[in-house]
């Protein structure tokens, strides 16, 4: 299994979190009461990079005034990513410190695998009788953690969480809730907070989508909700409304992806939740820990006592609650998807009706234009007929007005003689120039028409080849 992790972990999708220097990094520690008082304490700390070795070697049992006694550290979480509350640049350990933590906690291969995955969960045996888990939802969340129970019966969880922005803020808010020692010491506690984060984001996404769908339903009128009235018809905004519905469908697809991961996390939790405490006979064979009160506490955890009364592998009550919530979210997602599909189809038909109305108006306008063109054509024919009537006379008048004839000599001739008008030398020159130019113009027109027809024929032939 280690080889498979190493193979997939060669390509990281979270390279933006790799930095060479970082003076401090944020950690969260969860301490539980060692005297069976059902108390827990969440501590957020900043660890400087030079003090990381001292921090790793801190004792796991300390006297804590907040717990009114001795506390045992059950969970250590290291945050990688920008904290939107604090602001500024990336807040997290440097690449060297991150590698040191991964090596110390046996998370190197699992962390690389989580950073190479788009979405999913995994679980595999780790070193020193530990189990390693991962939860990934790229590009928002990647969690790797190891869980083991020490030789004195103390459960320990070490996690590295890649999260920033709203996801990190929401995880911090979740951790501020009151968590009993039973959940805090469970192997699936990191998976639980990931589940709550994704479920919260899914609820927010569905709520945002429903608001948009309600507005579109009110605009289109395609619904049967008596409490909603159409404010005004949706004509003129169909393209915008259709784009909104397409965007909602895309967000809903992302919600379905998120819900699938939630279900996978539930499956992981139900199969890897902490096992019940060892039987009394087995406990007597183990070495008595230095802190007897701490050991008694882990024998009497409420969740473990409840689990001990159930069949092996049976999910706990909170796992059943998460599964039920995921089922209802799936129902809500399917319902919202159906409403979006109805509105998309309604908008499609409304747009088609609008296009048909536009086409009808265009056809009416085209008919009017055709009638006007016919009337104009009749007028042009009449004008051409009038031009044909006057054109010969106009040509003769224009020709006789040119200085090509000897009108003066004809007027000086005897009145009784036959009317004869001589021509000047320019008369022959006129025809010698006009006739060749006219012929050349007709030849050029014929050549141009031949070239145009040849190009059209070649274009049509090429279009047929493309279709074939």
Strand content: 5-15%
Count of individual helical segments: 14
Please bin the fraction of helical residues: 55-70%
Note the run of SSEs as H and E: HEEHEEHHEEEEHHHHHHHHHH
Distance between the termini: 53 Å
Q: Biggest β-sheet: count, sense, barrel? A: 8 strands, mixed
Principal-axis shape: elongated
Transmembrane segments: 382-400, 428-452
Keywords: Membrane, Transmembrane, Transmembrane helix
Protein name: Podospora anserina S mat+ genomic DNA chromosome 3, supercontig 3
Organism: Podospora anserina (strain S / ATCC MYA-4624 / DSM 980 / FGSC 10383)
Task: Write a structural description.
The protein is of the alpha+beta class and 468 residues long. It has 3 domains: 210 residues, no CATH class; 173 residues, Methane Monooxygenase Hydroxylase, Chain G, domain 1, CATH 1.20.58; 67 residues. It has 14 helices and 8 strands. Strands 1, 2, 3, 4, 5, 6, 7 and 8 form an 8-stranded mixed sheet that branches. The two termini are 53 Å apart. About 9% of the residues have low confidence. This is Podospora anserina S mat+ genomic DNA chromosome 3, supercontig 3. It comes from Podospora anserina (strain S / ATCC MYA-4624 / DSM 980 / FGSC 10383).
